[in-house]
Amino acid sequence: MNKDNWSFEPIQDAEPKVVLLTFDDAPDKYSLAIVRTLQKLQVPAIFFVNGHFLESDEKKSMLKEIHDMGFSIGNHTYSHVNLKELTEEEQKREIV
What we know:
By secondary structure, this protein is an alpha/beta fold. The protein has helices at about 30-40, 55-70, 90-95, and strands at about 20-25, 45-50, 70-75. Helix 1 links the parallel strand 1 (about 20-25) and strand 2 (about 45-50). The model has no long low-confidence stretch (mean pLDDT about 90).
């Protein structure tokens, strides 16, 4: 991951047959079980978060645990709307 712009870039000498494992709409009721299994198998993944799932302390705690276990967190906007249909200000609110 390029921490200057938070994007994922190909590794030049990586195996050409690879997969980028992502999970959308985290954290949900299965997220921690998935994370524990992936960690046991030493499989990295990115968990994309919808902001509306973080309205409780329990879900915030789950997301922190996912992050603390070494998994990348991605922004899946607040409510998973089509950003092309929103004004620039609405897009900003969805992302932030």
